[in-house]
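Sorry to interrupt, but I need a hand with the structure work. I would like you to pick a protein and set down its sequence and fold. Please put the record directly below this note.
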Amino acid sequence: MSKEIVEAVKALEQEKGISADKLMDALEDALLSAYKKTPGAAKYARVDLDHETGDFLVFELILPPELEEKLLAEAAEAQEEEEREIDPETGELREPEDPELDPEMIAPYEDQITTRDVTPEDFGRIAAQTAKQVILQRIREAERMMMFDEYQDRVGELITGIIQQSDKRYTLVQLRERVEALLPKSEQVYNERYDHGMRVKAVITDVSDSTKGPAIVVSRRSSELIKKLFELEVPEIADKLVEIVGVAREPGYRSKIAVISHADGVDPVGACVGPRGSRVRMVVSELRGEKIDIIPHNDEPARFVAKALSPARVREVIVDDDERQATVIVPDDQLSLAIGRDGQNARLAARLTGWRVDIKSETEFSQEDQDVEYEGEEQSDGRCMAVLSNGRRCPNAAIEGSTYCGLPAHQALSRFQTNQIAILTSIPEAEVEILADPDADEGQVSAIVEKAEAEFVEEVAEPEDEEAAVEDAEEPAADEPQDEAPEAEPVAEEAEQS
């Protein structure tokens, strides 16, 4: 038996990577347990196993009475410090067992202990059977640990498996021979079927050790699944030229991903879509028809939020940096598309950007704007007070300590009594910069303001003068006879043409 044991141990060390010394130590413990089960076994015993030849002997340990009492007292004291267990059948506390002396407790007193060889004559058969069981057990444990070490560092990795079993609680996915992963109900997509023998891709979310082997949990609902599928289909993502910086997903319905390019000349959206949509089509096919919106990432929150609400068209985005809230104005016919079914589009956009999104139609927003008086008031709601040439307020947020945003033209309006941007149309850009500068020369500023206000008033007054000329021309003079009235018609026509 000894030669066979040594050869088997050395072979296992080479093939399985199991330490020969550890296996021999485990075999010693197993032989000692087997000896204690034999009739007439000594109360205290030790097994010595030669690691080179495989020969073993069983020795009885004869302890002096004083030493035995001392060690038993220490063992009983240590046992009392441990919490007493509750019997699950009766619900009562279990009575403590008689204390036993472990070989570790006896080892320091070897010089006081006498030994006697008590190796049973027929112990070879028992030893061979015990050795076989120990070796098989250690092989299983080694394989389990190797498998755990292999998969514990693969959390977040995309794997492909074959469906082995599926029921209401979970689905078993075979990754390779003797390795199975668990796809729980909570990680499954509601509208997907998992039939026996079907290939499926999933992401590893958790790996834990257990007595039956490593428990590997995979997911089909994780946002990481979309990232890994695009990395598989898009070479630019695998090469780090394009990066997916954000994913918002409602599994089985729709997903939005934000992409950014790290290389000049590489379109991140076009790279993910592929020629004629071939790349994104493969991802959609693997996700069983789930819709995917690919959004170019932008550092400007307003532009990013507007793109995130795709496919809806956006007119304006008003952002509040302090509250991280974005008010989005869309055309009336795009309101339902921007919100999406049950608010899905707006919900995904908010999750992707990290901003609260409030969507309003143009009609609704214009009605709210009419309640705000722009002229001659210091009222401010956090937005820039400048009124653009189309009659709408600037959508930007006002900077701290001002009622206008950071644009020089809008800062220049603080020099005037009006907040109409049209007052600046008659002055050059260089003078606008002077007005926007808070440290500019007051004399120079006053001259520019007077000139701009004078020209702004004249523009408004000109149409009134023309209308007055037309009215005067159309009314006949009181001191002229009525029959000469037709002569005034050419004057009216000339005034209208002018």
